[in-house]
Automatic annotation (TrEMBL):
Residues 85-204 form the GST C-terminal domain. The keyword Transferase applies. This is Glutathione S-transferase. One of its GO terms (molecular function) is transferase activity. It holds the Pfam family GST_C. Residues 1-80 form the GST N-terminal domain. It comes from Polymorphobacter multimanifer. Keywords: Transferase. The keyword Iron-sulfur does not apply. InterPro entries: Glutathione-S-Trfase_C-like, Glutathione-S-Trfase_C_sf, Glutathione_S-Trfase, Glutathione_S-Trfase_N, GST_C, Gtt2-like_N, Thioredoxin-like_sf. It comes from the Bacteria. The lineage of its organism: Bacteria, Pseudomonadati, Pseudomonadota, Alphaproteobacteria, Sphingomonadales.
Length: 204
């Protein structure tokens, strides 16, 4: 296998998952700032032109971070990042969906349409800059919503560190770099972030 990596929270999420599982997969870094992800070669790996992508030994490529992590879980089940029972897997996927839809998407789209507009405007259709502010507000609102629901838990799925924690960590850290930090009134999130960031995999 070969992992096509780059800067950004999406590739980092997969690197964290690989580190949690102790996987050493050969990597190639794609220069997305220089447009290397917009070449015919990379479009053949991933028609959306985004990163990351995982090339399998048979030449097939898997893109999208949740699909890649699901695949790694299937071929290397331990330690489980999705779950060991149907109930655990359903719980993890439920929170992954909520975090992706309510927090990650508005955060990323708000960034692309404002601070990242110069880079992304030639590559995709963006919402207006005024809508970007609303998207950022939506992400902040849902971070506080999550903060309230998670009180008393070590991780998003109770005591289990899962793909949901990995995605949220990658994007909370990214948000802090792009002017979208955690809400100042959050109480659970800062403690959770400190625990997640202390894991060796967080440096991947």
């Amino acid at each position: 296998m070969k992992y096509y990596d780059s800067i950004g929270p999406n590739p980092r999420a997969v690197r964290i998952a690989m580190a949690e599982k102790g996987l050493a997969i050969p990597m190639e870094t794609i220069d997305i700032m220089g447009g290397a992800n917009r070449t015919p070669e990379h479009f053949a790996r991933n028609p959306s032109g985004s990163t990351p992508a995982l090339e399998l030994d048979n030449g097939a490529c898997i893109a999208e971070i949740t699909a890649i992590i699901e695949y790694l879980e299937d071929i290397h089940p331990a330690p489980a990042l999705i779950g060991s029972t149907p109930e655990e897997r359903a719980e993890t996927r439920m929170w992954v969906r909520r975090i992706d839809l309510y927090i990650l998407e508005p955060m990323a789209n708000g960034f692309r349409a404002s601070e990242g507009r110069r880079m992304f405007a030639p590559r995709m259709t963006l919402v207006s800059e005024s809508a970007a502010a609303e998207l950022k507000a939506m992400a902040q609102e849902k971070l506080l919503w999550l903060d309230g629901l998670m009180q008393g838990r070590q991780c998003i799925c109770g005591d289990r560190f899962t793909m949901a924690d990995i995605l949220l960590l990658a994007f909370v850290d990214f948000g802090a770099q792009i002017g979208q930090p955690m809400p100042s009134t959050a109480s659970w999130l800062p403690e959770w972030q400190a625990r997640a960031a202390a894991r060796p995999s967080a440096s991947a």
